[in-house]
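Customer ticket, subject: "Can you confirm the structure for 2-furoate---CoA ligase?"

Message body: Hello, I'm evaluating your service for our small team and ran a test protein. I'd like someone to confirm that this is what the system normally returns, since I don't have a reference to compare against.
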Amino acid sequence: MLDLASSFMASAARDPRAIGLVDGDRRLTYRQWYDKISALVASFGRLDLKPGDHVVTLLQNRWEAATLHWACQFAGLVVTPINWRAKADELDFCIENAEGRAVFYQDVSAEAVQGSALAGRLLRVSVDPGTGEAVGFADLIRGSAPDAEPCVGSDAWSIMLYTSGTTSRPKGVPRRHRAERAAAIAHVAQNLYGRGERTLGVMPLYHTMGVRSLLAMSLIGGSFICLPRYDSRQALELIQREGITNLYLVPTLYHDLVHHDAFDRTDVSSVRKLGFAGASMTDGLLKKLDEAFRPELFVNHYGSSEIYTFTIDQNATAKPGSAGKAGLNQHVKVVRIGARSVAELAAVGEEGEIIATLAGDEAFEGYWRRPEADAKSLREGWYFTGDTGFVDPDGDLFVTGRVDDMIITGGENVSPVEIESCLSLHPGVDEVAVVGVADEKWGKVVAAFVKRNRNVSESELEQFCRTSGLANFKRPRRYVFVDAIPKSPVGKLLRRLLVAGEYETERRPPSDAA
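Agent reply: Thanks for trying us out. I re-ran your input and got the following:
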């Protein structure tokens, strides 16, 4: 297996004049991009950064971040990206945990770097001027340098992503060059990408989806069109101006895109392939996207930072809710909830915990210095995902939520995803999230938090659930109307905030005339 640097060199030789990177008015061919990468690699040597060193980054999806990612692959540095919104204490945790040697940041993350207790001891590089005492990124890429050569092989560490850490300290997920490249190849194959594709580079480069888009485009001479921070209007402008051919987003961003008032005025005909991951997509949004884009391919990708692909469904609208079958490099099973062995398989149609083999080419090998996390999740050569789901008679996997999100009400197990998909089909529901809230009699009752687009009532929603065929014990017993559903920076639903009461109820009911 090629290391990533050798892979990029081959791409630059194959398609030297193809546009590889776009950021605003800056457009770099693969040859020009390779020159910038080479200059940066040469600067790493002068700064005494050595193979195996961790480089912590707090950057939006700018051309500098994409260039830094590739330069680290050549230099053998372990790029360790974290959310550019991170606070000083969160940055300190990652610096200490990864034993970071350098931190790259920008204007929006400068406050965290300046407030960090540990960043001052490291090499600091800023891509924006006036952000404190730091080396300027522009100085590191000024001038020319010989073409960079790979410093490490395919078994070297490439990247360390951090899990979201919504319930505890984030866990480092170190991944090798060969696993990263295998995941990128599978991404190309499973999304049927062709030569010269153009993707919207908006999923952050501290997230597995963003990294996969960046690497996948390099394999096919494609273009990574940077959008530093998600904005629906800017995304639509880029789709039209740059002729974006594929989108790979979380459902939340798709929702915001097709519901933006500029969508109907935008030419999105260049987009022929849609892919989503990161969360389940409701039946209502699937239908809306299919009607809006009429894509040639609509892929539901189910995976994680640890093992990029679990399953793939290349026709997401044909069987709404299905995550499909195992990906090219994967084998998945569903075991009973609480299973102590991979042999305790759930029956067809029985909800259980989803597990994935660690023998696949895309898999990680364990968390960074977290033996207790390894003991919980890695067993008998399989990764216990913590996700719940079931396999139908056709062998297709349905993901129903998280083990920790399962609602046990009156002794019955209820999946919030099924209820959300049902309510999402009501025309008055814009977004919905379902959780279990404490109840003296039932233990927990099903509560639906609804962002509505017209003045739909609780009784109307209750009747809709009844006529939809949703079982009585699954129907919400409480409805709460809210102005916004809490989500993580990459669009993942944060049910724990709803359970904890950390939300604001709707300030004013919407007008039916709106």
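A couple of notes from the result: The chain has 15 helices and 26 strands. The two ends are 56 Å apart (CA to CA). Feel free to reply with more questions.
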